[in-house]
Design brief:
With 87 residues, the chain is mainly beta. It has a single domain, classed as Beta Barrel (Sortase, Chain: A). 7% of the residues lie in helices and 44% in strands. A 4-stranded antiparallel β-sheet has the order 1-2-4-3, with no helix packed on it. Keywords: Hydrolase.
Length: 87
């Protein structure tokens, strides 16, 4: 917990701080439900190619920055391609 998540609409960059990481079964759809009054992001990914488990990462909104004013190290993250699936 505490690591950062950066999301952007190319106008602003939204910074979230990770608050929890958990593994759940695929039937746990409740983990993506909105919580009233909480500005958070929920990331969901499969644990394996058979999709037998899900990793759920939640983060709370810390702030937002204009895209044009963001630090270079944050902007560089948006130019990378990520793919963790290995078959």
């Amino acid at each position: 917990a505490g690591m950062k998540i950066y999301l952007s609409d190319k106008e602003k960059i939204y910074t979230y701080s990770i608050t929890s990481v958990e593994n759940v079964t695929p039937d746990r759809v409740d983990v993506i439900n909105d919580r009233e009054g909480v500005n958070e992001v929920t990331l969901v990914t499969c644990e394996d190619a058979a999709a037998t488990s899900r990793t759920i990462v939640k983060g709370t909104l810390e702030g937002e920055t204009s895209y044009k004013d963001a630090p270079k190290e944050i902007l560089n993250a948006f130019s990378k391609t990520y793919n963790q699936m290995q078959l």
